[in-house]
Amino acid sequence: MIDGKNILYFMWIVAALCIILFIPRNKVRLAWVAFLFNQFLTWPLGLCVVDMGWIEYPITFFEKATHTSFTFEFFIYPVISSLFNIYFPEGKSFWRRSAYYVLFCSTITIFELFILHYTELIRYIHWNAYFSWITLFITFYLCHKFCLWFFKPYSNSSNY
User: Which domain holds residue 138?
Assistant: First the structure.
């Protein structure tokens, strides 16, 4: 088994570098909105999944405060969601946008399966990779739709 704490430290460093290297200055506001909205979704959902006994996270940074994966739910996945929204192929074909969703959801799920099998960071109890993929898809979709709404051009209608 690979040491879980070292993987958590490594993931924090990689995610921080992704913020620095891959978020262009002109997209920082979009990145922040996506990051915060994703936290808004995933943090309580992660808590529910753990409290329902579907997943366990034996190794975390804040064992006495929470039993969920603070690293993934509060930092790693929001960073990925920021990148997802920044580079989303808006205006492209349905198939290209769909492939983008499939690529992101599948990559994260495969990484999660690697973590599941080779570390003690996560244990599925009443959960499986399909549930992970579906919840990733739903949260990416909701976050993307929220960002589109949030940054919708100002309308000169009398509603404002």
Answer: 4-150
